[in-house]
Prior knowledge:
By secondary structure, the chain is mainly β. The protein has a domain at 4-65. 0% of the residues lie in helices and 27% in strands. It is built from no helices and 5 strands. It has strands spanning 4-8, 20-25, 28-32, 39-43, 51-55. Strand 2 (20-25) and strand 3 (28-32) form a beta hairpin.
Amino acid sequence: MVAWAIYPKDAVKVAKGAPKSRASSENAERFFCGECGTGLFYISETYLPGKIDVASATLDEPESIGAPTAVVQTGERIAWAADIHTLPEFVRYPGMS
């Protein structure tokens, strides 16, 4: 699961390196780091015209964008994901302090 942040395309600048891209469907292009493969952003003029969907965890200061305001793309959500917020939480991994 990932949290995305939507911006106007011209508001996003890559500070270092040159992302690689791949057409993930006929309507979308996904961009990733050419060094490590981390997913960076998604562009679809069909679904998000003029916008770029940025993986929030890749931002230098993800807390600065505020809390999510919606849950989207739930059409194919696995049933158990609807209640994932009720599961126990661990700072790192279960059994580690």
